[in-house]
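Got a spare moment? Tell me how you read both lines of this record:
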Amino acid sequence: MSPTIPTALTIAGSDSGGGAGIQADLKTFEALGVFGTSAITAITAQNTLGVRSFEMVSTALIAAQIEVVLDDLGAGAIKTGMLGTPEVVGAVAAVLRARRIAPLVVDPVMVAKSLDRLLSDDAVAVMVRDLLPLAAVLTPNAPEAEVLTGRPVRTEADAREAARRLHDLGPTAVIVKGGHLDTPDVVDLLFDGQHFHEARGPRHATRHTHGTGCTFAAAMAAHLALGHGLLEAFHLSRAYLDGAIRHAPGLGQGAGPVSHFWNVERART
């Protein structure tokens, strides 16, 4: 009997504040009509003001979580977030390389909104070597693209050049997110190896943007699991994130979470 609902797996850290990481991913999956499963890589103690501490889960347990989920529930798409250490990056890549069963969305989580570092320097090299060649989509923001390419990414032209260089590292497609670019509006760029596609939207005057990177990447995974093509998934995910920012509930004293169920709540009214 075939499943009645698509599934998607997130491999990421837990956010005790509920706005990013595993929590954001699962909320996004649910809001978009996908059953979400998870493999937790780290436990963080954080809120809207920052990350106070975190502990990594053992690589053996991370790999076991992925294996048991895929053995039973499967995954129409897989998304990675906070991986933290070279050992974890390598272990996750090894399991996914052996499986090769679903499109992989890699969100190269490196720095939290509070500027806390979430990926060690030596883990970046392992990510480039082992994980990026497995990715259907890589979704860095401008600072992450700078780390991965070693070049400034400040303008739209910079983002296009970064996307080309990142595509050369192996992912099928690259989306350089434009929230940090020096542009009047937000310009997200998708490069599929041949063509650029862009999604433009206004900048919202709000501090409530915690978890936007996780949310966008999870939306991409959800739409791919639903069977949408890359370009359609890109535009649908951008529209979903824009609505989530506009409807942010205004929680916390710092960078608050977005509203992951804004589309569901609007449909009910």
About this structure: The first strand starts at residue 7 and ends at 15. The chain has a mean pLDDT of 93. The CA atoms of residues 18 and 24 lie 7 Å apart.
